[in-house]
Structures
1.
Amino acid sequence: MRHKLYQHESGMALIIVLLIVMAIAMMASSYVLSSRRDIRTTQVIKTQASKNADIEKYLNLSKFWLMHPEDKKRWVADGRLYQIQTQNEIIRIQITSETGKCDINNASEDLLRAILKVATPDRKLQQQLVDRLIDWRDEDDERLDFGAESADYLRRKFNYIPNNQAFESVDDLLMVMDFDASILDKIRPYITVYSQQADINYHNASIDMLRLLKQDFSQRHIQDLELDKELDLKLNPYPLSNENPDESLSSIEPDQVYNVIIEIKTIDNIRYSLETYLKTQAEDSVFWPFQTLDWKTNQLKTSLFADQPKSAIFELSNEFTN
Ligand SMILES: [Ca+2]
């Protein structure tokens, strides 16, 4: 009987020892896991920091080539893609002058309609979006035919009414009745609040923008020889480092805003990006020619590595990066 009890006690002790060993093992393995996680987090932060440094390097490079004193070497800010290839990654840079886009605060009804054709084929909805956009930015509270002013917003239970003033950002369009993210993302490459002009500067417009205008003009039986000439020039762009047949293509002026997108794709297909808006300063500020208006990292809506026509990519050799 006594012997049996002793056996029972030693059995209990063994179970307790086993439980302690298991608990220690679990603690140790969770420590290993969490320290592995820490190492991985540190690596991600380190890689991000080094990519941010790379991106700044390419931004400075872009500023340099955008301001280059030689016309034929200067980069062209019409949305064309410049590409640099290193051993482990591909870098693409796109610079677009905002004067080549449709300014939603100043554009005419016709121009806005042309842009909104990209968002929807529904002509009634196009007109509705145009009128509602104009009603939002115009000072009065008188509704256009298909527009919406404060009474309409209140009736539709919005908890705000139109600003009746200029848009501060293209994202403000999401406040306008019937605009949504899918419409905005479709027209985003074509619109701006920075050009401050009613018209589009064809020199600075992207091929896509010129094609869109050409299509709209054709539908309305309008011929614009200047547009045709620019479209032709951009479809057959001059090769980099050769004589530029049209020097005015690459002029850079003070007080203009440029959209700069830099995207790095690594050998492991990991992408890092920067989208920024730069404003050229007055001509006398030689040392700080650009003012930064906006700065977004890793938030690109459309990757520069999405399908692009091969002709729009300008491959840069190492001489450009060194
Ligand atoms: Ca209004």
Note: The chain has seven helices and eight strands.
2.
Amino acid sequence: MILLTALALLVILFVLFKRSYNQYASGLREKPKYFLWLLTCFINFKGWSKESYCLRTDNIKSTDNSGYLNDKDIPVRNQSRPKMLRALPHRQLTQQAPDEIMYEMHKHMESISIPRYGGQTINDQLLLRGPSMVEYTGANALFLPNPNKNTIENGEFAHLHSNDGSFHMMLHPSDAKLLINKQWAEKFPLVGMNLFNKIIIPDSFVLIYAPQNESELNIWKTILNACIDYNRDNKNKH
Ligand SMILES: *[C@@H]1O[C@H](CO)[C@@H](O)[C@H](O)[C@H]1NC(C)=O
Ligand SMILES: *[C@@H]1O[C@H](CO)[C@@H](O)[C@H](O)[C@H]1NC(C)=O
């Protein structure tokens, strides 16, 4: 009798878990691992997946005010923000990049980088590209070569989510604020945290919404350039 009750409870729990997982994964263009869903439950519980949490800019620390973006180069984004999954993964559920824009983004990344094998190059000015080291569902990333103590982990400073066209990148704090305020970006829900006692995610790690057309693609390139310059300068800081 007890065994049967336990079995019935297990089945009910399983069905509930499955339903909750399906709800979480619906709208995504990928199938995340169960452990990401478990982390997502925790993130939701903590309130970090709230829109207001990801759009807060007053707590982004800035040591100096001059970022790499010019206010006049960045118009206010015309559309309302996309519907999001703000957890793991951090993804757009609407307004994904059209295929031809995705193609242009990949082409642009290829034009500014070489494939990453060992991560070391003689020319410190080159950028490397390869699979992301921090994105669990797969993404193409850009790396600074020859990482040092000023770069995060392996020198990865930006990656493209190939399923929706959004981009995670590390920006100058002032640029991050500017882009969040002009509706181009939002913070990654786990910024400021120390993951696995290993990776500290800086305050200004943001998601840039997927460009929708050529004119938005140009803005995306401007943002990416600012990101590259910032991360290079940051790496060479003493
Ligand atoms: C690009 O897309 C945005 C958002 O849909 C729209 O507001 C803008 O007018 C478009 N620009 C062009 C040049 O089509
Ligand atoms: C937003 O819309 C205006 C007018 O519809 C257009 O001139 C401008 O280029 C658009 N901005 C972007 C970023 O597409």
Note: The longest helix spans residues 2-25.
